[in-house]
Amino acid sequence: MLSAIEKLQKFLKLEAERNFDNRAVVGGLEKILPIWTSEANDQSVDPELIQAVVEHISKYQQMDTTSRAGVINKLLTLIENAPATITLLDGQNTISQQPDKKPSHIIEENANRASGSPANASKVIESTSRATRGATTRFGTESSSLGLNAPLTIIPGVGPRHAQTLATLGMHTLGDMLYYFPRRYDDYSQLKPINRITYGEELSVLATIQNVENRQIRGGKAQITEAVVSDGTGYLRLTWFNQPWMANRLKPGQQVVFSGKVDMYLGRLTMNNPDCETLEQEHLHTNRIVPVYPLSGQITQRWLRRIMHQVVKYWAPKTPDFLPAELRQSAELMDLPTALYQIHFPDNQESLKAARYRLAFDEIFLLQLGVLSQKRLWQTATAPVIPMPENWLRQQIERLPFALTNAQQKALQDIRHDLQSGKPMNRLLQGDVGSGKTVVAAIAVAAVAQQGFQAALMAPTSILAEQHYLTLLHLLTNQHDAEVPLQQDQVALLVGDISESEKQKIRTGLKSGEIKLVVGTHALLEDPVEFKHLQLIIVDEQHRFGVEQRAILRSKGKNPHLLVMTATPIPRSLALTVYGDLDLSVMDEMPVGRQPVETHVLHPVERERAYQLIRKQVQEGYQAFIIYPLIEQGEREEVKAAVEEHERLQKEVFPELKLALLHGRMRGDEKDQIMHRFRNKEFDILVSTSVVEVGVDIPNATVMLVEGANRFGLAQLHQFRGRVGRGSAKAYCLLIPETENALENERLAVMTETNDGFVLAERDLEQRGPGQFLGTQQSGFSDLRMASLTDLHLIEKARKQAQLVFEKDPLLNDPSHQELKKMVMRLFESGKGDIS
Fold it and tell me: Do 235 and 251 meet the contact criterion of CB atoms below 8 Å apart?
């Protein structure tokens, strides 16, 4: 029977004789890899040679003829220099086998035929050698070793079925495995003598097998394996259920390391189903910090840990570090190969911490480079100058029916600077609920319209779009004032439920330039909507729109100015990352006369007090919201839901009042109709889910009652609270959690301590993470595996290092930055360059 080496030689020679047409094996050379690697491992072929074969053959099909000649020549040369001893298939004996050393004339002859000269073939061999050094990271470094792009079936013990299971976990290549991190670790690194272990501990014990036996239980339907071990200080009983082979594996007198949780049975300490490894084995499951990976039901931790160790042990040291040594030293970072090994199989807690920090730094650092690249892209573009002379600006401010706050004036100056700079504005206008962002945006619209350009405002819902439309009409038009920036027929509302004829009229006006301002929803993104000269885009509630939607709207103009508005206060850590490419204006001052909303956390038994307050406010002519976390009750009957509660409230609690129901399953036109009628005071109370969170303006509403308040984040509760108190009357926000849980109620109590949305946003980020700030389509930020967007220290450190790199080499053209450049491009290519 031919050895694995001889088989490989045979295939390679045949391929050379066929002029490298990749038909020496049916389906191509790479078809031999799964079986050949298994045989080679069984025969103890040098692992370096196995990996070299996999690296080259796995990419053979994509190569041209000249490159293939170089690969075949290189592999045959490696085989000639391989270790001479080869293990026979039966594993009993070894023979000295000297590989056939006759391929050179064949290869040279065919290489000359393929490339024209022997010199060309040698160049191919050398370039192939250079191209296959190193390894790839999950981000896809393209100059790295071809091997990490190989399928998982090349790993001994991984067949098509296991490969399919691993694919469901997100692992398709060896590179994916390197970046498939453990979800937690069991620390078995501290050995303890048996006489010092206590119930409930998770630890390792080094002991000698005293005896081991199998016995049947449950009338022969199950088996139990029991072993007694001793380390000289005491005895410990170990049990395994339905694992009879353990009795053959463990022999009396053998020294073994056991790891697991200490249990107790009939007053004696035991370990149930412990992991065990003999003293001479390399310990993967015992006597160390053991990684625990996310699993599917078809594989076990021990199996995946063993496979992972094969990959990590070989490939982590070969992974090139894309961070320059100077940067690593400055930032005090572990090198990448060490970090990748230590994150999977840490030597100690300190090494694990350092590995986590390095990999988290990489994620934020790469995102920062992407953010800075995006910002630079906008800063190098040009846009028409939009002048805002002092006299003109003063006239616009004096026309307003109220005085601007200092925060509004500062934001206005920021926008004025951007519009006059000759470069596209890219600004985030961040202001708490009711801080007056729309007024500032209106003056920007007026400036753009004065120059004959067009502006578009996009809102997430029809009701909010109409609200903005009416506000802007009021601020920018006046039939009796010839000096106003716009006339009523120059302002349009484009939402989904207006008639097709009206839509067509608006489209015609936008294309001709007669309409200067359009307010709308996603309808603005439709292909038929064309602008003559769109120069200002305003996006309200930024996190509600995906990257592609904003890119479509931007494409309807030529480098238009972008103003993003949000009432969700952005914590500093997110302002540096998610919104790091935007210039930031913060409006942290409320208009004069606006009263803070009085907030209380009530126990569930105090619900009647809330109902009494609502009755009193309705009797005085005001309205109320009641919010529920669910639409309908399902499996979790203890959770109150809007549909059932609306019916109960109308029949049993407020039979004399008019109640309306609003939730997310209603059609858009249905929701709009309900909100219109509520705004027109046709209803006293609106029972709703969280759909009222964004931007609804009901000045007559004075009570916000939130049921199941513990199910909402602080930032979301603050948005609910912002729906009331928008008039001159005193307003109230009442929060009722589902239980008396002291910890939850303590969290909610923060709402009673402050009306500052920025303080609440920081608390919310700490407690619940960044999800509610990001939406679902923020490019690059959903794949963070190690970094936390709550770690401000790490974010600032990574941003500082990214800025240093960017200041010296903004295009990343330096030879030492090529791997970095490819990784940044790969990370953001799906986002089309538009991050926030």
Answer: no
